[in-house]
Write a structure and sequence with these properties.
Helices cover 42% and strands 16% of the residues. The chain is of the alpha/beta class. The protein has a single domain, classed as Rossmann fold (3-Layer(aba) Sandwich), CATH 3.40.50.720. Strand 4, helix 4 and strand 5 form a beta-alpha-beta unit. The longest helix has 29 residues. The chain is globular, with a radius of gyration of 17 Å. It starts with a strand and ends with a strand. 41% of the residues are buried. The structure holds NADPH dihydro-nicotinamide-adenine-dinucleotide phosphate and 2-hydroxyethylsulfonic acid.
Length: 251
């Protein structure tokens, strides 16, 4: 029987690349995001390869999250793999002048949204003593860089939740692990810099950043290990990157 993966943030970047690879490998998909036209286009495209269902909800909205999960059609309701991927940085300002709206967005989406989705999906995993959760953290959850303050805090929280989930779910045989990427060229910087394409492009210039497909490959590797193998915490950076603040660029 096909496994079912529930992927948040499937409308672009890492989530979309993961959905595409999973589809090729015959994993059934629940694709989540807020941009309906992208959900529709991706669902139509991937339906030739696997069974696909899409859900449009904002992960900040706890009622919408619970409702989306409870209204899943029967053939998609037995989730085997949860990819907690939806998230973004909003702004990049020093702490003394940061935007409160940006802070709310990052903590509400990256931390609370991940919690709501996990809370909605976990009861069934617990009941069947099976399941695999991949939390998409970041190098920003392993170290802090100037003006990264709240985004880094949100990803440090994901790091803590990854550990906490693993502890609490151990008795149910549920695997929990994090994939923590460094710089990946996606829409991430466009969102962070509020549509400023020039500023966003600069983040990825002068070196080879990771591609979303690189992370999808790793996620697929993680979810295809034998049951006794749990990749608990994985950090991956472009070769040019040594830390959040040290990237070898040829500009
Ligand atoms: P993208 O901006 O390309 O994708 C972000 C995804 O999250 C989109 O599908 C978006 O969908 C979804 N999303 C954002 N906010 C919400 C929300 N409120 N409700 C529901 N869905 C939401 O960025 P990436 O692919 O790069 O980011 C994916 C994850 O990877 C994030 O958690 C990010 O922090 C992490 N990451 C990214 C790195 C990078 O360098 N790019 C490095 C390390 C980690 P929609 O807008 O349709 O709702
Ligand atoms: C995204 C990587 O370095 O832009 O999580 O924070 S970084």
């Amino acid at each position: 029987m096909k496994k079912i993966a529930f992927i948040t943030g499937a409308t672009s970047g890492i989530g979309e690349a993961t959905a595409r690879l999973f589809a090729v490998k015959g994993i059934g998909l629940v694709l989540c995001g807020r941009r309906q036209e992208r959900l529709d286009a991706l669902s139509t495209e991937l339906s030739d390869l696997t069974k696909v269902h899409s859900l449009n909800f904002d992960i900040r909205d706890r009622d919408a999250v619970m409702e989306a999960v409870t209204t899943l059609p029967a053939e998609f309701s037995n989730i085997d793999i949860l990819i907690n991927n939806a998230g973004n940085a909003h702004g990049m300002d020093p702490i003394q002048s940061g935007s409160l709206d940006d802070w709310d967005a990052m903590l509400d989406i990256n931390v609370k949204g991940l919690l709501y989705v996990s809370r909605a999906i976990l009861p069934k995993m617990v009941k069947k003593n099976a399941g695999h959760i991949i939390n998409i953290g970041s190098t920003a959850g392993k170290e802090v860089y100037p003006s990264g303050n709240v985004y880094c805090a949100s990803k440090h929280a994901v790091d803590a939740l990854n550990q906490g989930m693993r502890l609490d779910l151990n008795q149910y045989g549920i695997r929990v692990g994090a994939v923590n990427p460094g710089l990946v060229e996606t829409e991430f910087s466009e969102v962070r810099f509020k549509g400023n394409q020039e500023r966003a492009k600069k983040v990825y210039q002068g070196y080879q950043p990771l591609k979303p497909e690189d992370i999808a490959d790793i996620i697929y590797f993680v979810v295809t290990r034998p049951y006794h193998v749990n990749i608990a915490d994985l950090v991956v950076m472009p070769t040019a990157q040594a830390s959040s603040t040290l990237v070898k660029k040829n500009l």
